[in-house]
Amino acid sequence: MAKSLFEEKGGKYERQGDYLLPCLTVFTEEEQPIGTWGQRHLDYLKQYRKVTYTNFLTSGKLNTYLADINKQAQERFERLIEGMKQAQGITECLKEENTLEWAGRLGNIRACARKIVNEEIIFV
User: Could you report the per-residue pLDDT of 27-40, keeping only the tens digit for each?
Assistant: First the structure.
C-alpha cells in the first residue's frame, strides 16, 4: 500500500480498534506575556480571521506572534502620543497651569492614537 502524504512527512498512525488514527501533536512554544493590544488582536483573529488563528495555533507560533503585535502596537501608540503632544504644544507647563485642560487634551490624543493603532495594526 502506498504511503499517505501524512506518512511521507514523518507522521505515524496508531490503531484504535478497527481504525488507524493519526498521532497528532500541537507544538509547544515559549509563553510570553501578551498585553492589551495582543489580546485585542487575538479576539479579532478568533472572530474574523479563523483560518489565520488556527494556522498560528497549530504551528505553535500564536503566542510569539501576539507578543510581537503587542510590542509593535505599544511602540506605535507611544510614538503617536509624543508626536501629537509636540504638535499641539502640550507641555508640563500646561499641566501645572491648567490641569483640567491638560487632562482633556491628553485624553483626546490618547483616544486618537488608540484609534490609529487599532486601524493600522490590530484590526488588519
Answer: 677 788 899 999 99
CA distance linking residue 83 with residue 20, whole number of Å:
61
Of the CA atoms within 13 Å of residue 63, those in its CB half-sphere come to 8
Is 6 part of any domain? no
Q: In the structure grid, which three cell numbers stand for residue 14, read together? A: 496508531
Total domain count, the chain: 1
Contact 72, 121 (CB under 8 A): yes
Domain extent for 106: 11-122
How far is C-alpha 90 from the chain's CA centre?
30
pTM recorded for the entire structure: 0.76
